[in-house]
What does this fold into?
Amino acid sequence: MKYNIVEEKNIGRFGLLVLLFLIPFLFLATGIGYAFVDGSIDNTIEGLKNIILSPTILFTDFIRVGGIGAAFINVAILGFINIYLMYVYRIKINGVLIAAFFTVIGFSFFGKNIYNILPIYMGGYLYTRYQKISFKDIIVVLMFGTALAPMISEISYSGFLPPLTGVIVAVFAGVFIGFVIVPLSSHMLKIHDGYNLYNIGFTSGIIGTVLTGLLRSFGIIVEPVSIISEKNHIVIIVLLIILFLGLMMTGIIINRRAVIDYVKIFSYKGRLITDFTHLMGYGITFLNMSILGFASLLYVIIIGGVVNGPVLAGIFTVAGFGSLGKHMKNCLPVVLGTIATALFFGYDLSDTSIIISVLFSTTLAPIAGAYGTLAGFIAGVLHMILVTNVGVIHGGINLYNNGFSGGIVASVMIPIIDAFKKEKRNAA
Amino acid sequence: MQHESKKIAMIVNELLTMLLLKGAGKIEVKINRQKHNTEIVMKQQQCDYDEMFIQNLRYNLNTQRQTEVEEYFWQLVGDDDNEDELPLVGTMVDEAVVELVDGDLYITVNRKN
It folds into this structure.
């Protein structure tokens, strides 16, 4: 991969950590402020309790379950835990880590909370003890790997086991997931050759299918639910605008040529791992993340959608992967394919499940980047057809359902495209 | 570190694939494996790479060892013939030296166990 010579201010690892820290801090401050202005601190605490005690299965929107204040505080808690780990283990703030962090932030609005992520981290820790490797080596995988966190909440609180037994079984299930997610996620990359950016969604889909199958064998019904907020809140939209504007300004301050040099990012195909912080520098990376974030938000507003928990997860994930392979050029064909298919089948574009399918379809952006607009468009078509059907297989315990679908699409499409490709023979 | 032998083989695979795709005809590979370090030396005879290509190799192979990236993504190395994964190789090695001497390209990478 060709790198671009960039001259930018070096803000150092600590400076980058502070930048990331500001995101959960912003949510914490707004969450607490919202509770005070609303005059409902007790309600916020109650909301936080509801978030932690809910089964959190797809789609459980924490804004609906706990209210805005509680959802924001949940985001802040999870953000701070991960910032702390990055700080203590001195992890390099690269594109992979930024994408993982934004994904965690996004999914803290629906699905992830302090209770259901900890057993997975614990399982990961046990794996490192068993393999005699550093916990640092697997933090990124664990950050993404909390996709299966609803499994823990579902076993604990859905009532098919007595409360204490439920919690014990759930913690064991979480530890098991954390233990196996590292080797499995690495192995699954080979199936789609890195053309599905949400690889852990694919991995979690496979594990989730096995675990849900097991539960169903015992007569336990695991099915997706739909508890979502159906009202737009201005505070959320304003906060997103502040955040993406902040990213844009930071990018331009770090690299004064960021806007001029931005188009160079379009030359990258985006396959895993295309770390823009390494290839383009932090300035252009932040600008790219900001553009993708604004584009996602604008799309949701234009089609009349609601910026609720699942949609926020979509927006944050798209923006986060602006540091790891996604840009407007490779995302657009896939998104257009998804929208065209939704319209063809008569789906309501403003429906939350369709909005997030469109946003998350960008998991297949590398196909457009590597094989062109038409291939990207077809990938979007296949994604839309598949994603509306695969959620049932794992019963909604895999939060990254689109990553599961994307993995299937990529693993089918890539060998077929390669079969039609004619190799250029180089002279020896 | 798990799969150490396989990882070394995949680093060789990636570098070799990159040179072959560039049209290399004569390549020598030497692997010197010791208790705490593995050195891989690759030599391509008589090549006409420009300075930009050499700089690109140097930059991408000296990404800095990042075990957290390696642990997750190492299986992608040497996997694709559309695009190189040199920055990923860079996260798996501690030091890389790229030199063009009398028309021969030398790539030396060191990986601590």
The first strand of chain B starts at residue 27 and ends at 33. Chain B touches chain A through 33 residues (CB under 8 Å). The helical segments of chain B are 4-21, 51-61, 67-73, 86-92.
